[in-house]
């Protein structure tokens, strides 16, 4: 052990080192403060991060993250932010806005010697969870050498775990909803010392979706603070800026004077595609770019799910993913990371990924649904051509949207040119989607919801000159999705779809010939075709198509001149054999007597009609094995109740179908029969449910009554002390030579609810004649009982 004098010397040296380090830190901090004060924000000499007056931990973190050269927005905004100015920053997508506010956040807190005891110093608000996670990752990289505590507060996680640590954080990255929840519910969370408020994608954060939450958050914050707003399409509303209490804000923009609001390396095209052809064109495009990285934007989560599920079954040959706001947080993060790491894949997404997210090396951005405005368009195409890389974007426009949308994009300085898909590579998936929806009710239901969501998204658009719902071919769009008809649009006022739908049922056409000539042509205007019409047109799809085609034709009489005659009677023939009389002369009576049985002709089984003119042939044809020789190969037959063979997919003759009456009349009759059958089935189901409930109540009452009476078969019998002699049982045994007397009939036990008379008979044991042992004297002692028992055992 060192002597006390040596310990005192080492302690003194340690104190001297610490004091020198503190003194050096103070000098460095004062020098840094002086450099910031002398900084000229408008200097053109600032091109690298090394030219900025940054602290040593921040400079090391930036260097370790491989950031060297400043972008335009960083060179203009960081010097102003370091001097404590409020900033409105606007720059093109992919221009490095994240570092423009993270570097000032770290530097300002460092110069104020911020510690954990000082509480929250900077609050960064993001409109989406994915963007908040991306900001937090960048903050961890460039701030790895600082001692600040930083946290991520977003939805989809346990609020209890966040509540324990949120009060000790110096920097918080959050979404508005979860941040407001902690401000209202977490007692240890205080924002009185907040120095900086940052809003990324400020125009989106300040819109109607987050307006109330942002207003409530701002009310909790101190008025004296530094505020910075950043976005590619910056808000300039005086009301928005007044709500945030900005003080002499500096507006920093790097693309207003430029020729284009989008990156110069981005090639932008639009394709005129009618609404019913959108899915076909999209599938053809994906099939032609299997080695590309593609983002497809749609207007709603239901559409994302339907297109993803449909294309996943069609297997275009490229990995498919989907992202929307209804997914759980873990799934969203997993899909985001997978798409970022992939080299060739396609993700279907809503606008939840349209802002700020940095996906590496995206080749194509496809906007299947037209964006609501030019700002949304700019943010969507900003997922590609980032950091001066090349990229391509395609906008799908309905002919009714072309003029208005191009005018809006022109006002925003968005250069876009028209292109056309190659017809050789164009393919249709309409029939495949129709089959999938016909066989999978869940996909059909999802398609109906997607159609409704798309229609609603068009209806609520603010630019009515671009989005006019009446100019879209909604019926064709529903058919292109594989739906049997366009779902009813409930939110439209004055919707007369119900009136139009019921009109053909009440008005029965009498012009049968014109109906026969038209066949499967397009319906007239105002006529609504049901799913049964489309089902009749789809031949040879599966077993159900043949089944439905037989439903109307079965047991239908045909009209004749002399009344109602069965259809099969017209096809019967009388065949008379030649009869030779003995005398050489033949009379009418002889010919009538000699006539054989009526011959039958069966058509459609073999290549030639089969004539059955004898009982022997009729008997042979009833054998399936014999009938195989006559029928054509590759056909299957079914036999009706009379033993008559039919083809499995036998179709009714079109002429016979029209002879039964007008198409509308047959349809109305079929619908009436089906409606009556459905109502009767509902009544039967309700009665069955009532009977089951009644039986359940009776069983419950019987079980409760049995419990009250003390009857419980599950409980094992227990010995009860009755006060009788335990040896009386052995004494009562019959002796040898004596017949066992029949026991007196016991009282009839009440039946349980699950027993019947047959159960008692099967459960009753059969009476057996027992061997009787005589005993001279009644046993009185234990020895007498042992002797009696030994005799019984022998």
From TrEMBL:
Query: This protein's superkingdom?
Result: Eukaryota
Subcellular location field: Nucleus, Nucleolus
* Every Helicase C-terminal domain range: 278-437
Annotated EC: 3.6.4.13
In this chain, composition skew of type Acidic residues spans 775-786
* UniProt entry keywords in alphabetical sequence: ATP-binding, Helicase, Hydrolase, Nucleotide-binding, Nucleus, Ribosome biogenesis, RNA-binding, rRNA processing
Which PROSITE patterns does this chain map to? DEAD_ATP_HELICASE, HELICASE_ATP_BIND_1, HELICASE_CTER, Q_MOTIF
One GO cellular component this record assigns the protein to is: nucleolus
Outline the extent of the DEAD-box RNA helicase Q domain: 47-75
Q: What is known of its domains?
A: The Q motif is unique to and characteristic of the DEAD box family of RNA helicases and controls ATP binding and hydrolysis.
Q: What is this protein called?
A: ATP-dependent RNA helicase
Originating species: Lachnellula suecica
